[in-house]
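hey so i finally got around to running the thing on that chain from the lab meeting. sorry it took forever, my laptop kept dying and i had to restart like 3 times. anyway pasting the input first so we r on the same page abt which one it is
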Amino acid sequence: MREERAYLVRIVTRQALDRLRVLGRRKESYVGPWLPEPLLTAPDVAEDVELAESVSTAMLLVSETLAPIERAVFVLREVFDLDYEEIAAAVGKSAAAVRQIAHRARGHVAARRPRGVTSPAETRAVIEAFQRAVETGDLQALLDILAPDVVALSDGGGVRHALLRPVVGAAVVARLLTSGWTRRGVDRSFELIQVNGSPGLLVWLNGELDGVLTARVENGRVMGIYHVRNPERLSRAGHETTMSR
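ok and heres what got predicted. didnt touch it at all, straight out
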């Protein structure tokens, strides 16, 4: 059984590394920000705090800054709790080298990971308030929810209109949301769902799925807004993805 597990870990890890390298080359010519592909997840994923954090949009963005081998070692060690010898066999390096890679990756992630710990219930309440404010175009309500240094990112991949660079600041982001999403003649609606282990929103435009929006919430405020509109990145937004450790 242990040999079968080691074989599966090795095969899956090497396929994932190949995929990461392909994506790395694609990102070099990608139009605008590249956001992680949104995954609809079951509510019980949020109950596993470590798993939910590891698949959150904010954490995936942090892991995107790791080199492929660092990312593989970090996930296998920190999320799946594999020992260094198993990881070494999977990535084709010595256990000593894997220990060094894991230490370096942990330091890199620790310096960039979200600081505040927010409960699923608090996150949901903030997302619901955000939804109401955007739907009604209530600028002041949005300003009350957004952190002063909130960052908004959107991913259209050059296929759909999206921000080509991050937008920073509550006033600018609030005006962008209220002016862009409350135009007359546009039937836009939001559906509260679980995305990447946390509450998020499906964005519908004239009855068609237009995007998926997630947010990073800390201390009762929205610190980051991540809006994926590229149709190619929405392939898993129509069905729930099973996640477990």
